[in-house]
Design goal:
Largest sheet: 7 strands, mixed
Shape: globular
Number of helices: 5
CATH superfamily: Fervidobacterium nodosum Rt17-B1 like
Radius of gyration: 27 Å
Structural class: alpha+beta
CATH topology: Heat Shock Protein 90
Distance between the termini: 71 Å
Helix content: 25-40%
Order of helices and strands: HHEEEHEEEEHHEEE
CATH class: Alpha Beta
Number of strands: 10
Number of domains: 1
């Protein structure tokens, strides 16, 4: 005897979604009513307004920090306090000092305005930092001085801070080589004065108790927003550097350029480090 089972009715996915959403709305409404009864309608409105105002203020503060980024480069280390006994190479100089300064212009050849810093700390990690600075910035300046009929414009500026015994140095160069597109190159270096070691972004976030996932979500959202602007400009015929928010370069473990200032962490994505562009993205956490 063959038993024929009744066909299983196919679940209506749309109905399930509507059902779940309805339940969530009811739960949310219940919470709002309960809070209103507990705190009072006026107090609840004040709490919501305060939270909204705080979020708006944070966004405004971040926009101001981004807008003031250019003003950071003062070619000096900011005043600092540290209880660490730092072993200097030269006791007459600060722990960051102008190593190579030059301002010179030759018609049709170059226009040079540079202030390149070095670390004045007797340490193997710092020694590698200085070697990298020499290779990236000093040698480029020397090659510009030897150039002829290239119309090279080259500037280098820096800023350094010490916060919570972390020495943070940021160097920015602008390079316009003849008819090539302008490049903005930014390199940063971070040294733990207390523990004599390099500091990564992941180290810093963990030290401050900031969740890496939260930072990566913020970066992804802001890069996606910038790319939307690029697409809008591209539709108008402009050629703008494109981003991909899914690129691994935006992961914390791959973010090498960052800077610490007044408790804020600047994440810096300077695309000119690898490409002929002056485009860069700043995200503050």
């Amino acid at each position: 005897m063959n038993v024929v089972l009744p066909k299983k009715e196919k679940m209506n996915t749309k109905a399930v979604i509507l059902y779940v959403v309805s339940i969530l709305i009811c739960i949310l409404a219940t919470i709002v009513v309960a809070c209103s009864q507990y705190f009072g309608a006026d107090e609840l409105d004040q709490m919501i307004a305060a939270n909204t105002n705080k979020q708006v203020q944070e966004e405004v503060d971040e926009e101001l920090l981004v807008a003031g980024f250019d003003e950071l480069f003062t070619n000096q280390i900011e005043a600092y306090q540290s209880s660490v006994n730092i072993k200097k190479i030269d006791d007459s100089k600060d722990i960051i000092y102008p190593y190579y300064q030059k301002q010179e212009k030759r018609e049709n050849n170059y226009d040079l305005d540079i202030c390149i810093p070095f670390f004045n700390i007797d340490n193997e990690v710092v020694k590698k930092f200085n070697e990298a600075i020499e290779g990236d910035f000093v040698k480029k300046a020397e090659s510009v001085l030897e150039s002829e009929n290239n119309n090279v414009i080259y500037t280098v500026q820096y800023v350094a801070t010490v916060e919570d015994d972390i020495l943070s140095l940021m160097i920015r160069s602008n390079l316009k080589d003849g008819s090539s597109a302008q490049r903005v190159i930014i390199q940063t270096y971070h040294f733990d004065l207390k523990n004599d070691k390099e500091v990564t972004l992941e180290d810093l976030l963990n030290r401050k108790g900031i969740q890496i996932a939260d930072v990566e979500n913020k970066v992804k959202q802001q890069i996606a927003t910038e790319q939307k602007k690029v697409e809008d400009l591209k539709a108008l015929g402009y050629n703008i550097f494109e981003r991909n928010a899914e690129d691994e370069m935006y992961q914390v473990k791959n973010t090498e350029q960052f800077f610490i200032k007044d408790g804020n962490i600047y994440l810096i994505y300077a695309y000119g480090n690898e490409a002929l562009t002056s485009e860069l993205d700043l995200i503050i956490v």
